[in-house]
Amino acid sequence: MISINENYLKLQASYLFSDIAKRVASFQEKNPDKNIIRLGIGDVTKPLPTACIKALHAAVDEMANEATFHGYGPEQGYAFLREAIAKNDFQARGADIAADEIFVSDGAKCDTGNIQELFTTSTKIALPDPVYPVYLDTNVMAGRTGTFSGGRYQGITYLDSVKENNYVPDLPKERVDLIYLCFPNNPTGSTATKEELKTWVDYAHKNKALILFDAAYEAFIRDESLPKSIYEIDGAKEVAIEFRSFSKSAGFTGTRCAYTVVPKVCKAFDSFGDKQLLHPLWNRRHCTKFNGVSYPIQKAAEAVYSAEGKIQTRELTDYYLRNAAHIKAEITNLGFDSVGGDNSPYIWIDGQGRDSWEFFDLLLNKAGVVCTPGAGFGKCGQGYIRLSAFNSYENVVKAMERISEALK
Ligand code: PLP
What we know:
It is a single chain. By secondary structure, the chain is α/β, with parallel strands linked by helices. The chain has 2 domains: 141 residues, Aspartate Aminotransferase, domain 1, CATH 3.90.1150; 254 residues, Aspartate Aminotransferase, domain 2, CATH 3.40.640. Helix content is 38%, strand content 15%. The protein contains 14 helices and 17 strands. The protein has a 7-stranded mixed sheet with strand order 2-10-9-8-7-3-6, with helices on both faces. α3 runs antiparallel to α11, α4 runs parallel beside α11 and α5 runs parallel beside α6. The radius of gyration is 22 Å and the shape is globular. The protein starts with 6 loop residues before the first helix and ends with a helix. The site of pyridoxal-5'-phosphate has 14 residues, from α5.
């Protein structure tokens, strides 16, 4: 008899985006002439930078010619891209990361979801609330949680990210082994200082724990004092793995390219308590289960680091940050407390006592604007909504005019 992995039955169906879609469809049916503005999604709206498109076209032409054709490439990524990443994203900021510590992949979603395979089932997990759901669900699938009750899974240490701690969680009271952190954060848009990250790095050393640091939104950081990488913190290389993506920094959500950094000194422990390096383990997993990102896409990603590409990707993130600044200013004028929006494309808004879905319905029905209800990201998200800066500036201005009118 073939039996299923019953951990899958513990998963809560993710109704968030289908519920949103249903409510939007029903509103549109009743108001066919109303133009709806979507500030709910976490997907970019602007096209790829010209430098990337040029590189992509050239690489496609190479694939059409027997002399320059590429078949399977190295699973970890081509040296040209790994070297460009190491040099520009790390060494240029004083973080000593080498090209062979970079693993190129087709998404930070897959990488943040797959990484837990390296650790034993009894690993004690800590993750933020509210949270990017992939970290939680992949651990549920792997059997690291009990059942879901009262809005939370048993066996998980939830790190509340709330107004009182400025949306940067405090260290857990109990000992944990594996800690997920994400800055700039999705969904809250909060950022962490070097000092704050240092407390987590120190915790990991002291408790023989490991940090999984998701930096998918680092390209939106403008405050020079904020760290873009956890490796800007002394001692992080031994205790942290970092995830990055070209999705939001260069518009690759549909093109797919990302990478994970596993430093050669980064470690975990076996059942005898002996140190085991994670680099060879991740290399083994990656090469066994993944056959590399396509050559043209890696060439397009490499172009992000060309002189032209650097200017164009900066313009791209500046564009969304201008949207974010407008949302933030308008929502503040309306008297709402919020976080994010200055070094992040997300603005996390306290609904002043409104339930998340009630606030969602109000914005949809009175303003024709779609947001994301915070409750969909965890218990601590109740009472909040997330507005995203991924839309045109004109739409953002129009949306905020309508929201101002609706909330007056
Ligand atoms: N990590 C976070 C925090 C995200 O919000 C997202 C996408 O929204 C991802 C990772 C996924 O990135 P990718 O497109 O590289 O899979």
